[in-house]
Specification:
With about 200 residues, the protein is an alpha/beta fold. It has a single domain, classed as Flavodoxin domain (Rossmann fold), CATH 3.40.50.360. The protein is about 30% helix and about 25% strand. The chain has 5 helices and 7 strands. The protein has a 5-stranded parallel β-sheet with strand order 2-1-3-6-7, sandwiched between helices. A two-stranded antiparallel sheet has the order 4-5. α1 packs across α5. The two termini are about 25 Å apart. Flavin mononucleotide (FMN) binds next to α1 and β6.
């Protein structure tokens, strides 16, 4: 039995709908991580005060960002996370604006820096030891692969590796309709358990 004690999972939630399908799926992920003995933090991007990224360029600050707002807490949570699960409804084939604001502000986790001998390069602040996943909801007639691509790139940028996507694809317009699919919610709980119990990735 692997001990998850002292490990934390961060669930980054791009949905503004409390009790919606993404919320329910991420709560199930968090329940799974907690049931395995870990900690889980459900971060609702819609509730954060976050300025948009200004693309301030290389060496703009010795900290994470030139701005200090609710991202300070997000950076700390992601830095200390053992695993990261990103959730978003599909909005016009993409992630929600709430999540995109937070993702863009994480550009500084792998900043562009000036090299001592000249030139510039990206320097990750954190080793890529975290496992990650994407949780989403959209219509059965629409696609989520474009959002998944964006989230996979984001996870890489913050020192995580995408491992799987759980998608609730529905025919209805009912908030929280994933509750009608207990098997998918159980898969979300299993995902939380697996991610918190798995060893860190080798670097
Ligand atoms: C602004 C906006 C844009 C949307 N665009 C899409 C879309 O491109 N494809 C899709 O399948 N659903 C789209 N939807 C519907 C949501 O993705 C869908 O209802 C989802 O299940 C909501 O999940 P949530 O309640 O957990 O936030 C859109 C909804 C909104 C509000």
């Amino acid at each position: 039995m692997v001990s998850a004690r002292g490990r934390s999972l961060v669930a980054l939630d791009g949905s503004p709908v409390r009790g919606g399908s993404v919320d329910l799926l991420l709560e199930a992920v968090c329940d799974g991580a907690r049931a395995a003995g870990g900690e889980a933090t459900h971060v609702v991007c819609d509730g954060l005060e976050v300025k948009p990224c200004q693309a301030c360029g290389p060496d703009a600050t010795t900290g994470f960002c030139v701005f200090h707002d609710d991202m300070d807490g997000v950076y700390a949570a992601l830095r200390d996370a053992h695993a990261v699960v990103v959730g978003s409804p599909i909005y016009f084939d993409a992630v929600s604006a709430q999540l995109k604001l937070v993702m863009d502000r994480c550009n500084c986790i792998t900043p562009l820096v000036r090299r001592p001998g000249g030139g510039e390069g990206f320097r990750p602040l954190w080793p890529r030891t975290r496992r990650g996943a994407f949780v989403t909801a959209c219509s059965t007639r629409h696609r989520y692969d474009l959002a998944e691509r964006s989230v996979r790139g984001f996870l890489k940028w913050i020192g995580a590796r995408w491992e799987e996507t759980l998608a609730w694809q529905h025919e209805d317009n009912d908030a929280g309709s994933v509750a009608r699919d207990p098997a998918l919610l159980e898969r979300a709980r299993a995902l939380g358990r697996r991610l918190i119990e798995a060893a860190p990735l080798e670097v």
